Amino acid sequence: MKTRTTATIILFFLLFSCQSEYQERLEKGKAIELEIQKLQSKKRLTDTDQQVLMELYHSLKLQAKISGNEPVFLEEIR
Hints:
single chain; 78 residues; mainly alpha; 3 helices
């Protein structure tokens, strides 16, 4: 009985930790998406703006891959 309770507690903490990490990535993804929208709303993009925009897209794609479920992640941030 004690082993089962211990296993349940460990499982709970592992699931909570994974959820917390996903939430952290999701928040980071939302912040990146906001920066992308800000840049896209400019009337004229400088070369630097375009480079930053590409870096933001790359970073967002990386966060989505790390999340473990790229399509759902990208849907949730938009």
